[in-house]
Automatic annotation (TrEMBL):
Belongs to the UPF0162 family. Signal peptide: none annotated. Residues 65-209 form the Protein SirB1 N-terminal domain. It holds the Pfam family TPR_9. This is Transglutaminase-like domain-containing protein. Coiled coil: none annotated. InterPro entries: SirB1_N.
């Protein structure tokens, strides 16, 4: 992760620290993730407290303020899960126009919270993050539900949640609707384990996986693939194979020595479990070193 300027290095440090905190802040993690893609537009000076402003080129403070503003538009007080879902759908789906379409899957912006708040378009998981963060600020019993292939939100009883689909503007989902979503994405039946509320770090890793998939389909965007992998490696729990993916990206980007070293380190970890795979990786490391000559 060398070559970062001081601001980027500080954001990485903050991301790692927040990910390891007792109660990770989902919005902050998503916004630090979004900052990796670069400034969101013309630099903004954002008022934080009376008489105090901050320079906010990455839109982190502006996005937090927008989430607070949206939450303030929801009537506070006790209401049923169905009441919360309806209020969120009316505010975010109808009045504000948050939603998605198939075209949004082709845009990196659709995975960046700052841009989703600006464009009001995004992938299901990012739109769900908006719903979760706005509803949470207003006191709603809300959580993410990581259905395979389509992220949604749940309200109320976690054993029998009321589900809504922010991608469709907040349309309510019956149990049958959820079954159809899962079957359409995986061909398998809906399992109770799929309805377990998603933890913040699980949501962040899934977003990073989406970004890695987006970049993998665009070989010219190894820059995006690299930062997505590097943020994933900062999470306290992540697939071990990401270390090898990181090494491969370094080699692809011409950093042959670092890539070879990381391949060799990963091969050592793998040697006692999959010796054949480890030997194959050592050969690739040797080939990467040969490119230095």
């Amino acid at each position: 992760m060398s070559g970062l300027d001081s601001g980027a290095a500080e954001r990485r440090r903050q991301f790692a620290e927040e990910a390891r905190s007792e109660r990770p802040d989902l919005a902050l993690l998503c916004l630090l993730l979004g900052a990796e893609a670069g400034p969101v537009g013309p630099a903004e000076v954002v008022p934080v407290t009376p008489g105090e402003t901050v320079f906010d080129p990455y839109g982190i403070d502006a996005a937090q303020i927008e989430l607070d503003r949206l939450a303030g538009l929801l009537p506070h007080g006790s209401r049923s899960p169905a009441g919360w879902a309806s209020a969120l759908a009316e505010l975010l789906g109808e009045r504000c126009g948050f939603g998605g379409s198939s075209a949004d899957y082709q845009r990196l912006d659709s995975s960046l919270l700052q841009q989703v708040l600006r464009r009001r378009r995004g992938l299901p998981i990012l739109l769900s993050v908006v719903w979760i963060e706005v509803a949470r600020r207003a006191g709603a019993p809300v959580y993410g539900v990581a259905l395979p292939g389509h992220f949604v939100v749940g309200f109320g009883d976690r054993e029998q949640p009321l589900l809504a689909d922010p991608f469709s503007g907040g349309a309510p989902l019956s149990g049958r609707d959820a079954e159809l979503l899962v079957t359409g994405a995986t061909g398998a039946a809906l399992e109770p384990s799929m309805m377990v509320p998603a933890r913040p770090l699980e949501i962040v890793l899934r977003i990073l996986n989406n970004i890695r998939a987006w970049a993998a389909a665009r070989p010219e965007r190894t820059d995006v693939a690299l930062w997505a992998v590097e943020l994933s490696l900062l999470l306290p729990s992540h697939p071990a194979r990401l270390r090898y993916e990181h090494a491969q990206l370094l080699v692809q980007r011409g950093d042959f020595l670092r890539g070879a070293v990381e391949m060799e380190e990963y091969a050592e970890v793998l040697a006692g479990i999959e010796p054949t795979a480890a030997e194959n990786i050592r050969r690739k490391a040797h080939a990467a070193r040969a490119l230095l000559n």
